[in-house]
Amino acid sequence: DIQMTQSPSTLSASVGDRVIITCRASQSLDSWLAWYQQKPGKAPKLLIYKASSLESGVPSRFSGSGSGTEFTLTISSLQPDDFATYYCQQYKSWVFTFGPGTTVDIK
Amino acid sequence: EVQLVESGGGLVQPGGSLRLSCAASGFTLSNYWMGWVRQAPGKGLEWVANIKKDGSEKYYVDSVKGRFTISRDNTENSVFLQMSSLRDADTATYYCVRYNNCYDNWGQGTLVTVSS
User: Fold this and answer.
1) What are the 10-residue block averages of pLDDT along chain A, 107 residues in total?
2) Beta-carbon separation of B62 and A46 below 8 A
3) In this complex, do B47 and A101 lie within 8 Å of one another by their Cβ atoms?
4) Distance between CA A18 and CA B102 in Å, rounded?
5) Residue A37 half-sphere exposure, CB side, CA atoms within 13 Å?
6) Between vectors from CA B41 to CA B35 and to CA B47, what angle results, nearest 5°?
7) Theoretical Cys-Cys bridge with B109: which of A103, B21, B89, B93, CB 3.0 to 4.6 Å?
């Protein structure tokens, strides 16, 4: 099975900061990678699919890049609503895997 | 509006069984793969299972193989997760998800607590 890692596990940042989260896979995913945002007590929300495609309705300050085994989620200018936990997920086959998550909190 | 509403969660003893249901509305269920994702209290997301549009293919995380069964009834607009031989480690909120550019819609979740 494909294993996923994320770094950092926690990130402290301020409003307006540029934030970059990295996700790595144990084998090539091509571009079959998604990013989700989750706030406490809520279901996750899809942000990015196929590594770099922005889900409808998601602000353009979110962007994704990468292919193969290394991917990044970038928030160009952190907003108050963006403090949350972010998960990557591989979906190369029909056996999916999530990364362990990155929590973005207030510095 | 797409809606996924889970039900069937609750408290169950170790070794017991539970059947989760997911009522889908706002879209044609038979056009989509569906799945279940769980989240233990205070922990990350864990993918559990996927089922093909017509139910002919099913995939599971290793930790639930042989104990959980995903199924669907497209005529009733429902997806199910039959869980048996439940363990403490199965305690989690279980989310029903729709696959469309990965998981584009999630239910609100139903809590399953396995405890004696």
Assistant:
1) 97 96 97 98 98 97 98 97 97 96 94
2) no
3) no
4) 26
5) 19
6) 20
7) B93
